[in-house]
Write a structure and sequence with these properties.
- This protein is mainly beta and 127 residues long.
- It contains no helices and eleven strands.
- Strands 2, 4, 5, 6, 9, 10 and 11 form a seven-stranded mixed beta sheet that branches. It has a four-stranded antiparallel beta sheet with strand order 1-3-8-7, with no helix packed on it.
- The radius of gyration is 14 Å and the shape is globular.
- The termini are far apart.
- The mean pLDDT is 94.
Length: 127
């Protein structure tokens, strides 16, 4: 049973920073492609950032490039999302996702391709 638990969300003023964490238990974390998504009220869940199992490749949504950084610590079974220069439009519930890739080095950006999801953590950015 693979479980993902996000933490680190909260309230912040525009221009501020937050770091989200996603702790993964079960399975073999080091073989998983990981992703972060977000969902604002009334909108579909959208891609934010992704990293492959070896941490050698990353991908970001255009809206967060240069402001957000995804990283992973395979020794701690944890993936992070450092969010800087936050804007009110970043307000959403943020979800992490995992997909076993069996060492293929795949990077996944489509939510339909992830099998495991966390429960989400709320991020609110006020102007």
């Amino acid at each position: 049973q693979v479980q993902l638990v996000e933490s680190g969300g909260g309230w912040v003023l525009a221009g501020g920073s937050l770091r989200l964490s996603c702790a993964v238990s079960g399975g073999t974390f080091s073989t998983y492609a990981m992703g972060w998504f977000r969902q604002a009220p009334g909108k579909e869940r959208e891609f934010v950032a992704a990293k492959n199992w070896s941490a050698g490749r990353t991908n970001y949504a255009d809206s967060v490039k240069g402001r957000f950084t995804i990283s992973r610590d395979n020794a701690k079974n944890t993936v992070y999302l450092q969010m800087n220069s936050l804007k009110p439009e970043d307000t959403a519930i943020y979800y992490c996702a995992a997909e076993p890739t069996y060492g293929l080095g795949l990077i996944i950006t489509r939510k339909e391709e992830f099998s495991y999801w966390g429960q989400g953590t709320q991020v609110t950015v006020s102007s």
